[in-house]
Amino acid sequence: MKWIEFLSIVRKESVFSASVLLAGQGSPLGVRRQLDRWVNSGKLVMLRRGVYRVAEPYAQRMPHPFESANKLRKSSYVSLQSALAYYGMIPEYTPVTMSITTGRPEELKTPDGRFIFRHVKTAVFFGYVEREVAPEQKVVIATPEKALLDLLYLTPESDTLSYLEELRINPSPAFDNALFMNMAVRMKSAKVLRAVKRISSVWRRDKEDIKL
Asked: Is the pTM of this model over 0.85?
């Protein structure tokens, strides 16, 4: 396969899997060797085995970290601090892109940064939507409510008042308290329910302090 032909195949994909090239392209071994040659020549960047992006200046656009996260692990969605920072609910910059998966937990160090995938059971794998986080880049990401619930679910002692106060969560205007509670009930976690009730009381107290 020639480079120009290859670019025409992946032109709409800022991050792609080698599997899209293997169908009908002759020897799988030959395709992989060609990909390796393009990586060695600087035309491609390998994010993990079988997952690549086109290098500058050949790429039409660079992938958003959330798009890369979706492509690095199928059946995953961006959540936790990464999603909370995206929604403006926490003040901290998050250099690591964090996602939820029902597969094994994993941390990847790639040329484009670090990606962490946290495991949850299938019953808790819900509450995600598709959003356009950059032009022509749609990603699967937790809703604001579920991003916070995932954090409470996966963090030890997240139901303590000290932890909840240190979070400094600032609910976005679109944050739905009723949906937040309904999702918490659906997760069937006593710790999460305690945390939700306590963080709601913290928010009410903060609002009263602002009025004063």
From this structure: yes
